[in-house]
Amino acid sequence: xxxxxxxxxxxxxxxxxxxxxxxxxxxxxxPGPRTxxxxxxxxxRRTRGIPMxxxxxxxxxxxxxxxxxxxxxHRVAFNQAFESLGLPWRWDExxxxxxxxxxxxxxxLMADLATRADAPPTADERDALxxxxxxxxxxxxxxxxxxxxxxxxAGVAELMRECRAAGVRLAITTTTSRSNVDALLRVHLGADWxxxxxxxxxxxDVQRKKPDPEVFQRALAQLGLQPLQALALEDSPxxxxxxxxxxxxxxxxxxxxxxxxxxxxxxxxxxxxxTRAGWHPALRGDDGxxxxxDLVGWHDAMEIVSQFG
Length: 309
Ligand code: XBP
Ligand code: MG
Hints:
This protein is an alpha/beta fold. 40% of the residues lie in helices and 8% in strands. It is built from eleven helices and six strands. A six-stranded parallel β-sheet has the order 3-2-1-4-5-6, with helices on both faces. Helix 3 packs across helix 6. The longest helix is centred in the middle third of the chain and has 24 residues. It is globular and about 55 Å long. Magnesium ion (MG) binds next to loops.
C-alpha cells in the first residue's frame, strides 16, 4: 500500500492561490446526513438530477450597477423636487453619500426630514411631504434619464447580449421604483426592454427593501431557480448583504459612491465590467471587458474573496 500523497500547498507568496484556499461560500444544507463540504456540494448537485449550481440567471441591481444613477440622477432630481416646492433644502454629494445608507428614495427622505428642525413637526405631515417629494423626484429623474445624461456603465449592454445569446436569463432586482427602471431601460434598451428580462422585481414589489433578501427571493421564485443557479451583480454593501442573505452568490462592480466601501462576502470584486484589471480574484489578461465566461468561472469556484486581496 502506498503512503497518501501529502496535500500540495502553493508557494507562500502566491496571493491568488492563497485566496483560492479560503473557505467556499456556505451552501444550503441538503436533506440527510452531512459528511463534509465536498459531500454537501455533491449532494446538492445531484438533488433530483437538477444541476443545482449551474449559472442560469444574472440578477441585476440598477442604481450604481447598471448606471451611475445616484450622484448625477437621483440626487439632482431630489434637489429639483425640493426647489419645485420652494424648499431651501439641498443634498450635496457628501450628504447624499451618507443618506445612501438608507435604501429607497422615500425612506431616504423620511430619514433626512427626521433630522431637520424646519421639517413638518408630525410624522404624518412628514410622511405626506416625503410622498409628494418622492413622486416629484421620480418625474425629474425620468426627465434626466431621457436627456441621455445617464449612460449605462461600460460593459453592461455587452454582457446582457452575451447572456441572451447563451440562454442565461436576465432579471432586475432593485430597490428603486418601477418607473425609474422603466425610464432608464427604455432609453438604453428600447421601449420593449421588458421582453428581454425573465423577472423584474422593484421597490414596490417588496415589503422590505435591501439589505433584506426579499427582492432576491421573489426574483428566484419568479424564475423558478435555486439561489446557487443565479448570480447577483451589485455595487453596494447593502445589495451584497441582501444577496448573501438570500444565499445568492454576488459579484461587485464598484460604483462612484461605494468605491471604497467595505464589502463582505462577494465571490468577486472589481472596478466594473469594462476592464479585466483590478479584480479579485484576478482575471487572466488585461485586455478587454469582463465576459460571461469570467462570471461562470467565478460562479463555478464560488470562493468568498476579500476586497483586501
Ligand atoms: C438604490 C436605492 C434607490 C434609489 C432611489 O437601489 O436605494 O432607493 O436611490 O430610488 P438599487 P427610489 O441600487 O437596489 O437599485 O427613489 O425609486 O426609491
Ligand atoms: Mg445599487
